[in-house]
């Protein structure tokens, strides 16, 4: 932590929620992890990987900023899609500040326009963040910022690269000054409100997507069945990867179990780094037909079950 971000005795403590919203693949999860300084949300090239609301906690001076990483907002086609989009807008409605994250390279894509139309209905303070600025010429960036500001009353605009961290500290300083005065909501050293069992499942789900993003529909899910802390300090974790059809199970397993083994190795390595202790990870693959229509699965993911 830098000196200027250290709390001063004279400063009142602040704490509040900042929602990150935007179209799929705008870079919300990458930005959240960058601002928090640790991995709390999965990142994937496959769109719509964030499902439930993830909260990452960043400290800046005497302020505690609780970032809410919402699912990407898109035109929903299925029940799971509707649940994710509803969750994103409810996360925005409950926040103190709403940040719209726009992929500067893609600019005013149709999905961004749809988000902007609804964003005008929210009375919250709004901040515009243009991401991936290192991929676009300055003139195009300024034109895009002017266009978006003409459509919505943003109180501030920030240009960042979530991937390399450029501009993110200025953004964090601004948001730290905008959350309400009040006591901190979480312990100072806590990075996320996500239980470790769920974070472990999310990490494995990310590895499934990274390995199989062209072959597997995103309606697969991972659940942590068992977590046992061993006497030697290691963790024994058992997880199940659920898919909707037998043909998908074969894809996840791979020839001779090669694919699921590679997924397990990648997930175990990352979990070992996060937990800072050895991890023994055991993965199973099961078919659960129509799980996307089961209300219980939605509760486990922190989503409301749409009745229609």
Automatic annotation (TrEMBL):
InterPro entries: G_ERA_dom, GTP-bd, GTPase_Era-like, KH_dom-like_a/b, KH_dom_type_2, KH_sf_prok-type, P-loop_NTPase, Small_GTP-bd
GO molecular function annotation: GTP binding; GTPase activity; ribosomal small subunit binding; small ribosomal subunit rRNA binding
Tagged with keyword Mitochondrion: no
Ligand binding (GTP): 22-29, 69-73, 131-134
Primary subcellular site in the record, as a coarse category: cytoplasm
Annotated region described as G4, given as residue ranges: 131-134
PROSITE patterns: G_ERA, KH_TYPE_2
Highest taxon of source: Bacteria
Keywords: Cell inner membrane, Cell membrane, Cytoplasm, GTP-binding, Membrane, Nucleotide-binding, Ribosome biogenesis, RNA-binding, rRNA-binding
Subunit structure: Monomer.
Described purpose of this protein according to its UniProt entry: An essential GTPase that binds both GDP and GTP, with rapid nucleotide exchange. Plays a role in 16S rRNA processing and 30S ribosomal subunit biogenesis and possibly also in cell cycle regulation and energy metabolism.
Protein's name according to its UniProt entry: GTPase Era
Lineage: Bacteria, Pseudomonadati, Pseudomonadota, Alphaproteobacteria, Hyphomicrobiales
């Amino acid at each position: 932590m830098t000196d200027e971000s250290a709390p001063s005795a004279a400063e009142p403590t602040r704490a509040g929620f900042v929602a990150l919203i935007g179209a799929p693949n705008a870079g919300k999860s990458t930005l959240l992890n960058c601002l928090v300084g640790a991995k709390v949300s999965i990142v994937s090239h496959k769109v719509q990987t964030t499902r439930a609301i993830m909260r990452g906690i960043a400290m800046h001076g005497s302020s505690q900023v609780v970032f809410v990483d919402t699912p990407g907002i898109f035109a929903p086609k299925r029940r799971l899609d509707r649940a994710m989009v509803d969750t994103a807008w409810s996360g925005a409605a409950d926040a103190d500040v709403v940040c719209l994250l726009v992929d500067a390279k893609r600019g005013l894509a149709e999905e961004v326009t749809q988000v902007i139309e609804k964003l005008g209905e929210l009375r919250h303070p709004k901040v515009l963040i243009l991401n991936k600025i290192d991929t676009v010429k300055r003139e195009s960036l300024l034109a895009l910022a002017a266009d978006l500001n003409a459509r919505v009353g943003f109180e501030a605009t920030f240009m960042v690269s979530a991937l390399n961290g450029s501009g993110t500290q200025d953004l964090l300083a601004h948001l730290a000054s905008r959350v309400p005065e009040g006591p901190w909501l979480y312990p100072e050293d806590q990075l996320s409100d996500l239980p470790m069992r769920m974070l472990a499942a999310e990490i494995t789900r990310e590895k499934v997507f990274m390995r199989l993003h062209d072959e597997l529909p995103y309606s697969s899910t991972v659940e942590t069945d068992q977590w046992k802390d061993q006497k030697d300090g290691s963790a024994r974790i058992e997880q199940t990867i659920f898919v909707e059809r037998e043909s998908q199970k074969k894809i996840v397993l791979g020839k001779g179990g090669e694919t699921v083994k590679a997924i397990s190795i990648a997930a175990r390595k990352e979990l070992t780094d996060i937990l800072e202790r050895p991890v023994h990870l055991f993965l199973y693959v099961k078919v659960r037909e129509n799980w996307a229509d089961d209300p219980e699965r939605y509760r486990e993911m922190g989503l409301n079950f749409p009745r229609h």
